[in-house]
Amino acid sequence: MKVTPKVLNDEQTAFLLHQRVARLASADETGKPHAVPVCFSLTQAAIYIAIDEKPKKVPASGLKRVRNILENPAVALIADRYAEDWDLLAFVMVRGRAELLEPGTEEHTAAVRLLRGKYHQYEAMRIEENPVIVIRPDKAISWGALDEPESSEAGVLDRIHGRRSVRRYLPKDVPDRTLEQVLEAARWAPSPHGRQPWRFAVIKRQETKGRLADAMGDEWRANLEMDGQGAEVVEKRLEGSRRRLRDAPVLVLLCLYLDDLDQYPDEERQRGETTMAVQSLGAAAQNALLAAYDSGIDAGWMCAPLFCPGKVVEALGLDPKLVPHALLTLGYAEGDPPKRRSRRTLDELVVYRD
Ligand SMILES: Cc1cc2nc3c(=O)[nH]c(=O)nc-3n(C[C@H](O)[C@H](O)[C@H](O)COP(=O)(O)O)c2cc1C
């Protein structure tokens, strides 16, 4: 993939990553302007726009935006936030040179994956058969309250579709009030008998993250070696995991706290109570992930603490009654995550028994 110098700063990148639509302006060789709304994906060096019209119906080269780019590659893309509270207004405008990426190239494949990762609608469209527009930015201009949390005008399903697991973050701090909103959402999760059988540990300092990484790394190394993984693979995976903990500005460890659960004389019902507690920890985690996304930050989920709860408690000096289950990383995504997301259709998942 071509590497172009970083033009967008971290605030601009974070703002653009949370916008679902932008406007693309192009001009023909006479300078006649043309603007269209576009869906887009982002890396730190490029912006990708799919051509989603069916190739047979409208050849890509028949689209005005494509013809313009071929005649005159100078383009601008603008994404903005409007709110009645004008303290929240903001925009980012990127100028750059656009090209068409042809199917079959490595960058085209990566771009299609990014676009499908961000917009599930593209999974059902044959965008891989069309060229993808790439903008290589050479100037970025922004104005307004880029850092304000996104307003919740979009419905909850939009937030559910937009959220994705993020594994690489920008070196940009999470505002305290955003972190509080995430924890507040977790607090309001449903729980068995309303017992709220969970507690949350927040970790920001590098030294503490390092202790946690070391504790979990020792256990993981032993497990990988037990699985017969080669030394090189083990080191690579451990380093990846350490990097994820180190580079995420905030970690939130979700722990089970079972002391307040109902007590039963028989094992089966007691097991049911514990299972319900775990289920509700999952609900707290999802509340937190959605609140994070809704507030303009991103999050990822790491299961590692589940496999060495005692070591995690020790490394962080937590109450021994806490059972670490899930670790959420929080921050601003470095770019659209490269992993393609897909979901089974409702037909596969649901049976109706009227
Ligand atoms: C219980 C649970 C454990 C997970 N553990 C990890 C993990 O250890 N590492 C990781 O990268 N992702 C982990 N994930 C995230 C999933 O891989 C991710 O949700 C899935 O691939 C779907 O992608 P999406 O969240 O972007 O939609 C976990 C998710 C869940 C629900």
Give helix and strand order, one letter per element, not per position: HEEEEHEEHEHHEHHEHEHEH
The end-to-end span amounts to: 52 Å
Overall pLDDT, averaged?
Answer: 92
Task: Name the ligand types.
Answer: flavin mononucleotide
Rg over alpha carbons = 23 Å
State the helicity in percent bands. Answer: 25-40%
Which segments are poorly predicted (pLDDT under 50) over 5 or more consecutive residues? none
For the biggest sheet, the summary is: 7 strands, antiparallel
**What is the molecular shape?**
elongated
Please count the beta strands (DSSP E, at least 2 residues each): 11
Main sheet strand line-up: 2-1-5-6-7-4-3
How much of the residues is beta strand, in percent?
15-25%
Number of helices: 10
Which structural category do the helix and sheet elements fall into? alpha+beta
Tell me what you see in this structure.
The chain has 354 residues and is α+β, with helices and mostly antiparallel strands. It has helices spanning 10-17, 64-71, 106-118, 156-162, 176-187, 206-226, 231-247, 267-294, 309-316, 346-349; strands at 22-27, 33-38, 41-42, 47-50, 74-81, 90-101, 132-144, 198-203, 250-257, 298-302, 322-331. It is elongated. Helix 5 (176-187) packs antiparallel against helix 8. It contains 10 helices and 11 strands. Bound molecules: flavin mononucleotide (FMN). The site of flavin mononucleotide (FMN) has 8 residues, from strand 10. Flavin mononucleotide binds at residues 164-165, 167, 301-304, 341.
